[in-house]
């Protein structure tokens, strides 16, 4: 690994060196352009949705509330990693301070834990709206929506706080080169002098429980939604419900599949899957959902689409 800085003298390094995409330095300029474009779209679209929902008194239902929170989380998740990644790919500014690295780790992994909970909450919202329309407003009251959001956030904090503490309190007496484009937990934990098994096992089990339970409930919700959609008398209503479900499930697949694949590949496929493939998978699930979520969830809603068009014009 010629040309990469190492630290063999300090117990803990002042900085870490983020490689970017290992083995693919020639692709870094193109990645910088692509990430910059996607990040711009994500910021603009999510900011517009949050602005419209806050400004428009007609956008005050449960669906709009969860969409507003999702857009906020998407901005946080993308902003935690993309600006630094673009810096790495474009200007070669690969260094990140010790504290900034663990702050990035906490926010990016915490945001992904909140995001999966919000996707479940939005699936539940659609289930109540389609399957229990007469009880929609009585079930999803403002207190219930706030309680769901607080519970999702607390779950992410409970998961991330021990994980970040375990890794940040290790001794880093060897290399300070992180073979990743951001401070991904497993990539940093491997640099510790002690065995990284406790924190990586905790991450694997915790992620599997959180994502597995959320996906199971999301699947059950959409199964009931589809059953209700097929029972509708109106063909247009059936097509509208199926179109909504299909687009939602598509963006969820783009979020969950690369995310879980990157975790299990980093754990099980270290010797069989190329390292640059592992890193690209981990990068994709952080930037694709914030870019697509506002389009799939927000711009498909006629009222939001018209309000955004009015703002832009």
Any overview of this molecule?
This protein has 313 residues and is mainly α. It has a single domain, classed as Rhopdopsin 7-helix transmembrane proteins (Up-down Bundle), CATH 1.20.1070. It is 74% helix and 3% strand. It contains ten helices and three strands; from the N terminus they run βααβαααβααααα. The protein has a three-stranded mixed sheet with strand order 2-1-3. The termini are far apart. 39% of the residues are buried. The N terminus is likely disordered.
Give a quick summary of the entry.
The radius of gyration is 21 Å and the shape is globular. 74% of the residues lie in helices and 3% in strands. Helix 1 (28-55) packs antiparallel against helix 2, helix 1 runs parallel beside helix 9 and helix 3 packs parallel to helix 7.
Radius of gyration (Å): 21 Å
Helix and strand run: EHHEHHHEHHHHH
Net shape? globular
Strand arrangement across the biggest beta sheet: 2-1-3
Please write the CATH class name.
Mainly Alpha
**CA-to-CA gap between the ends?**
53 Å
The CATH architecture is Up-down Bundle
Number of domains: 1
| Tally of alpha and pi helices | 10
Largest sheet: 3 strands, mixed
**Overall mean pLDDT:** 83
Give the % helix: over 70%
Q: How many distinct beta strands?
A: 3
| Broad structural category | mainly alpha
User: Which runs of at least 5 residues are low in confidence (pLDDT < 50)?
Assistant: 1-10
Fraction in beta strands: under 5%
CATH superfamily label: Rhodopsin 7-helix transmembrane proteins
CATH topology: Rhopdopsin 7-helix transmembrane proteins
